[in-house]
Design brief:
Low-confidence stretches: 193-197
Number of helices: 9
Radius of gyration: 36 Å
CATH superfamily of the domain at 2-79: Helical scaffold and wing domains of SecA
Distance between the termini: 69 Å
Oligomer: single chain
CATH architecture of the domain at 2-79: Orthogonal Bundle
Order of helices and strands: HHHHHHHHH
CATH topology of the domain at 2-79: Helical scaffold and wing domains of SecA
Structural class: mainly alpha
Strand content: under 5%
Helix content: 55-70%
CATH class of the domain at 2-79: Mainly Alpha
Length: about 250
C-alpha cells in the first residue's frame, strides 16, 4: 500500500508542480487546498519555499509523502496493523469490483461503435485496442485514487467516542411513542361521549371487530344485450362480430 499511496500523491503533485518546471509555474496554493480538503493533509508548502529559496520540487514532494505516511500510520496505530490490513483488503476488493464492472460496460459501449472508425480511414481493430488500453489505464488510476482516498480519510472512533455519540442520541428518542392507526380508530369508536372508556373495554372492542367490515366485492353486471360471435357487428361494417370488434374482446 505504501507504493500505491506514494504513486497517487506523486501524480497529484505533478499536476500542480510539473516536472522540470520553474517556481513561477508552480501552483502551491492550489495544491495545499486540495491536500487539506480532499486528503486531510496539512503541509505548509508555500511557507517552506518562502523560508528557503533553495527548496526544490523534490523536497516538497518528500514533505508531502512523509505527511501522508504519518497520517496513515496514525490510523494503523489506533486499531492495530492486523485489523487495518483486513479493512484495506475489503476496500480494495470492493473498489476493484465496482470499477471493473464499469470498465466492462465501457468496453461494450466502445465495441458497438468502433466500426465507425472505418469511415475515417482508420483500422477499427487497432483503434479498439488503443482505446481499450486507455480505458484500462484510466480504471487503474481510479482504483488507486479511490482506495488511497478512503484509507487516508477514514475516521476511526474509539469505544468511548462511540458511547458518547449513542448517549447524545438517546434523549431524542426517549419520548417517542408508537401507535397503531386501526387501534386508535377502534378506541375512538368504543369510547363513550361522556368521558374516557375503560382500556380493557377498548381492547375487547378491537379484538371483536368483525373482519367483514371491508367492502364486499360487487358482482359484475352486463349492460345491454349480449352479442353472439356470429351476429352482425353493431358497428355497421357488415362483418360478423367475431371477425370485427369481437377480435378485440
Amino acid at each position: 500500500m505504501r507504493e500505491l499511496r506514494h504513486r497517487v500523491f506523486t501524480d497529484l503533485f505533478r499536476q500542480y508542480v510539473p516536472a522540470e518546471s520553474v517556481e513561477e509555474q508552480w501552483d502551491l496554493a492550489g495544491l495545499q487546498k486540495v491536500l487539506e480538503s480532499d486528503w486531510q493533509l496539512h503541509v505548509p508548502l508555500a511557507a517552506m519555499v518562502q523560508q528557503d529559496s533553495a527548496v526544490g520540487d523534490a523536497e516538497l514532494l518528500e514533505a508531502i509523502l512523509k505527511a501522508a505516511d504519518a497520517l496513515y500510520q496514525g490510523k494503523v496505530d489506533q486499531v492495530g496493523a492486523e485489523v487495518f490490513a483486513g479493512f484495506e483488503r475489503s476496500i480494495m476488493l470492493q473498489t476493484i469490483d465496482q470499477h471493473w464492472r464499469e470498465h466492462l460496460a465501457s468496453l461494450d459501449y466502445l465495441r458497438q461503435g468502433i466500426h465507425l472508425r472505418g469511415y475515417a480511414q482508420k483500422n477499427p481493430k487497432q483503434e479498439y485496442k488503443r482505446e481499450a488500453f486507455e480505458l484500462f489505464s484510466l480504471m487503474q488510476e481510479r482504483v488507486r485514487t479511490d482506495v488511497t482516498r478512503i484509507l487516508m480519510t477514514v475516521r476511526i472512533q474509539s469505544a468511548e467516542e462511540v458511547e458518547r455519540a449513542e448517549e447524545a442520541v438517546q434523549p431524542h428518542y426517549a419520548n417517542v411513542s408508537y401507535t397503531h392507526a386501526d387501534f386508535d380508530q377502534a378506541a375512538a369508536a368504543a369510547a363513550p361521549a361522556a368521558g374516557a372508556a375503560d382500556p380493557e373495554a377498548i381492547a375487547l372492542a378491537v379484538q371483536q371487530r368483525p373482519e367483514a367490515e371491508a367492502a364486499a366485492p360487487q358482482p359484475v353486471r352486463r349492460f345491454g344485450q349480449k352479442i353472439g360471435r356470429n351476429d352482425p357487428c353493431p358497428c355497421g361494417s357488415g362483418k360478423k362480430y367475431k371477425q370485427c370488434h369481437g377480435r378485440l374482446a
